[in-house]
Structure formats: C-alpha cells, structure tokens
Amino acid sequence: MTTQTGTDQTGTAVPRSEATASWRPTARRQLDEMVARLNDGATAFTRLALSDRITLARSMQSGYLRIAQQSVRAACAAKGIRAGTAAEGEEWATGPWCIVRQLRLVAESLAAIASAGNTPIGPVGRTADGRLTARVFPANRVDGVLFSGITVDVHFQAGVSADAMTASRARFYKDRPRAARTVLVLGAGNLAAIPAMDVITKLFNEGKVCALKMNPVNAYLGPFIEDAFAEAIRRGFLAVGYGGVEEGAYLAQHAGIDEIHLTGSDRTYDEIVWGPSGPDREARKARNEPLLTKPVTAELGNVSPVLIVPGPYSDRQLAFQAESIAGAVAYNASFNCNSPKMLVTPKGWSGRAALLTAIERGLAAAPVRQAYYPGAGDRYRQLTIGRPQSRQIGTAGPGQLPWTLLSGLDATDPRELAFSTEPFCSILSETEVGSDDPVEFLDRAVDFANKRLWGTLSADLVIHPKALKDPRIADALERAVSRLRYGAITVNSWTGFLFAYGTPPWGAYPGSTPANIQSGTGWVHNTAMLEDVEKAVLRHPLTIMPKPVTFPTHRTAHTLLRRLTSLEMQSSWAQVPGVVAAAMRG
C-alpha cells in the first residue's frame, strides 16, 4: 500500500486518510494489456449502432446510480466531511448528480440523432457583435421548473452560420469513415465527476475508447467507476489504471495511445508535452519541437475573476451575492479550477466595504476544511507570507487551512503573484480598478482580467438588473461578455453550475498554443455535441429562492442533491415535489 501525505498551512506533512492511500500502481505489463484490449475494441466501437450506444449509456447511468451512495461516503471520508450533514451535498453535487445527469442527456442526444438526424438545441440568436448563439439550458421543462430564470447560451466563433452549426453538430455520427481512436484520460484528483465525465465525453461525443488513469489523490474512486461502467469495460471500450507520474508518462508515450486528455495543471501539461522544466524545455518551446506530438486536449485551471459592477444593491441583494461568492470559494475546500479567486471591485465604490464584510460573514458560516490536495500548504504560504492586510476567517486545526481574504492588491503591480498564480487553496484576493461608473468599470475590469490574470477558463460578473435599464450599461455588459477571453462566463452566479449542467460545453477560451497553453484546449460535457464553440454564458437572477445548494447556510443540500441525482435517471416529474420540498427546507 502506498502512503501519502498532505500539508497544513505551514507546509508541514500530515497523514492522509486511509481511503486515499489504498491504491497500487498498475504494472507496465498490465498497462500494455489494457491498451491492447482497447485497441481491439476501438474498431468495434466505431461501428456500434446508435441503439447499442444508447443501451450502453443507460447501463453506465444505472450503474453509477447503484454505487452513488457508497462513492459519496468514500469521498466524504477522504476529505474529512461528516456523512449525513449538509456538507455531504458537495460530494453528491460534484459526483453522482453530474454523472447521472450527463449520461441521461447523452442518451437523449443519441436518441434524437437516431430519430431526427441531429442533437436538440434551443433558440438560436446573435451576440452584440453578431456572433451566432444557441441556447442549451434549460434542457427540458423539468430544468425550467427546478432552475427557473436561469439560461445558458453557447457563443460560437466568428463566421459560424446557423447552417454550418447544424451541419457540424454531432460530427462523429455524420462523418464517414469513422477512425478508430484510443484516448488516454488523465483523471483529475479533486472532483469525483471529472474523470467519469471526461470519459463519457470522449466515448459518446467523439467515439473514442478510453484508458482512464486515476489520479493518486482520488484513486479510491477507481473501483466505483469500474463497477458502475462494467459493461463498457467488458466490451473493451474502457479500461481503468492506477499510478502516478511514471504510469501517466508511460501511457502518454505508448504506441497504442492516439491522443491524451488531461484535467489538472499547466505544469503537468508542460511536463507531458515539453518535458522537465529547465533550459532544454524552453529551447524546445522556442523551436516548437514538443517531446509529445500526439493531440492533447486539456482543462488546466485559472485565476478566476469575479467582476462586481456598481449598482443600487439593497443590503439583502448584496448579502445574497456575497454568500454566493463565499460558497463558491468554500466549495470542495476551494480545490476547484473555477473557484472565485480574484474579486475585481470598482475603485471608489461605496459598497466595497459592505461587500467584503458580507463575504467574510459567508466564509465564517463555512466550516474550515481539510487541505486534502497535495501542495496546498506550500501554495498558501507562498501567497500569504508578508501580507499584513490578509484576513483569516475560521480557526484551522492540523491539516486544515483557514479561509483567507487578501484585499487591496495593487492592480498596477506587475510583480503581484496573486495575479499570475492559481492558489488552488482557501484564498480569495481582491483588487480595485476603474471607477464607480459602471461603463468605465466594465471596460477597465475586462482589460484587467484579460491581460493581467492567468488563465482563460472561467469568469463571473455581478450586475444589478436596474442598472441594465440604462442602455449604456446594458451595452457595456454585452460588450464585456463578448470581450472576456474565458470559456465559461456567468452573470450573477458561479461557473460551477455551468460545469454541472452537462449541456454546456466546458473548457478554456480557444486560441491557446501548446507553448502557452493557459487554461487548456478542447471542450468536454457538451451533450449537444457542438463544434466551433467560443464560450458558454450563464445568466441568473440577482437573487433567487430557494437558495442555491452552494450556499454555506444551506441546511438540506445532502438530501436535495441525493433526490436530484435520483430524478436525473429519467428526469421524472413524479420526483419533482420531493426535490422542491428539500430545496425549500434549505
């Protein structure tokens, strides 16, 4: 058995739970056999009838629902979450709910291809700068009831017409001949849903068989995936392996692997594609001679901004948005690639102090969490040392990190580490730009986010609906949404919901290069199977009832998410009353 350690806020090693320490690396001979089985299954998979694909997706869905409770308990044990409490809802939300939902949506898309020749989408429109959009959420009437007032539109790249979007949608199912491909999926260690959802995307959107290499941090989930997706494994469409850097590198270079998908950090990407850090790597980048020449798609994190547009917020409205931000920071102990990390507030705005106080109050309502992800203590210390203005919220015990607010950062400081380093720990920073004029602020804040913050994955905006009655401000908002170089954007919400809904594409803004990968390249989830995507944009009311499950004060999140997961099996109206009842008690 391999023993692992984490770190506390001083960087001291602390023992990790038994649940995370029980994996064993897969021997190279077994990895070779695994890839050989997948290569044999790849050709059969390309020829699989749509009806068989639907049956496979439904088998995987029922399989994951069967192991859902056990997998949630294992994740809670690994992350120090007390089972049976509202905090357990995190593991339902970021595990079974997302996975069971995605598989239902995939099965429905495949059925639509079989009956109508294409995947379903909602209304088509145009952005302020004339680009094509397509609505992908709500996906059905049940979504419309449970998530009232929330929409997601996909924005396409410049020049894409409605006819081209229709023709390119679900491309794998229209192209002939279909190439047999085997993809290595290097699973993320922070969320239960990511490895499974990446596999589902590659299998059903792209028609590729998958070698899934579990991340050591959550390798304890591997046996649950093997159990749930047993039919795909039996037929040679999926295989699950275990190990660390050496096993991942061996598989990436394996002759039987055609391409790689990675969810992790840009440092891992560079290690795989360009080799170890140092002068040789930089020379290879300068010559554009990567060590790995196979196609690589990736989702690699972000310093996620939240742009706070000034407006006539009431105390209640400001408190709602503050708890929304605090809840998103605290979710999964802040080990999310899209956790809010940089509040961008208007210089001279009278509401700034009240917002920061309300965010601190929201963080105080969230229990201090175990810093289960390796290196968290080192990153925390690197970003907080020598900052007298930092505010710690909550008392951290051994192996924990306190919620920490770094406010008043100088937006003009080219050396500010918080602008270029993803914390991936319990830190939220804040800086001021522009002025309290909403139009000037939006223009300056977008420039700051695009030019000064590392990453291209996700960004949130907060804006008062009354402000949008002014055509100048409404135009400025649409201009900001168009100009932000991020693949996931929300208005008055958190991009975590964009990740979870399944229908929106999830990934970084297109245009990065292997030598400057930023937040990655390619799209996952995307159950409408859209091509030529630029970004997905979620719009949400300023406040909503009942409160979102991500709020630290939500009391029934575990019950609600368990019921939502069950509902997603068929999106049954019969289960809606139970979901609504749990939501209202939150």
In short:
The protein has 586 residues and is α/β, with parallel strands linked by helices.
Write a structural description:
The protein is an alpha/beta fold. The protein has a domain at 304-539: Aldehyde Dehydrogenase, Chain A, domain 2 (3-Layer(aba) Sandwich). Helices cover 41% and strands 17% of the residues. The chain is built from 20 helices and 23 strands. It has an eleven-stranded mixed beta sheet, sandwiched between helices. A six-stranded mixed beta sheet has the order 8-7-6-9-10-21, sandwiched between helices. A two-stranded antiparallel sheet has the order 1-2. Strand 18 (458-462), helix 17 and strand 19 (488-491) form a beta-alpha-beta unit. The chain is globular and about 65 Å long.
Termini separation? 41 Å
What's the number of extended β-strand segments?
A: 23
Which consecutive residue ranges, at least 5 long each, have pLDDT under 50?
1-21
CATH class of the domain at 304-539: Alpha Beta
Strand content: 15-25%
**Mean residue pLDDT:** 94
**Strand order of the main beta sheet, please?**
3-4-5-23-19-18-11-12-17-16-14
Q: So, CATH architecture of the domain at 304-539? A: 3-Layer(aba) Sandwich
**Multimeric status of the protein:** single chain
Report the total helices.
Answer: 20
Shape category: globular
Rg (C-alpha, Å):
23 Å
What are the salient characteristics of this protein?
17% strand, single chain, 23 strands, Aldehyde Dehydrogenase, Chain A, domain 2, disordered N terminus, 6-stranded mixed sheet, 586 residues
Tell me the layout of helices and strands:
Layout: E1 5-7, E2 13-15, H1 28-46, H2 50-79, H3 88-116, E3 124-126, E4 132-137, H4 141-146, E5 151-156, H5 162-168, E6 182-186, H6 193-205, E7 209-213, H7 222-228, H8 230-234, E8 238-241, H9 245-253, E9 259-263, H10 266-274, H11 279-287, E10 296-299, E11 304-308, H12 315-330, E12 340-346, H13 352-364, E13 369-370, H14 376-384, E14 390-393, E15 400-401, E16 403-409, H15 417-420, E17 427-433, H16 438-452, E18 458-462, H17 471-483, E19 488-491, H18 496-501, E20 505-506, E21 520-521, E22 524-525, E23 533-539, H19 557-567, H20 576-584
Parallel strand pairs: 6-7, 6-9, 7-8, 9-10, 11-12, 11-18, 12-17, 16-17, 18-19, 19-23
Antiparallel strand pairs: 1-2, 3-4, 4-5, 5-23, 10-21, 13-15, 14-16, 20-22
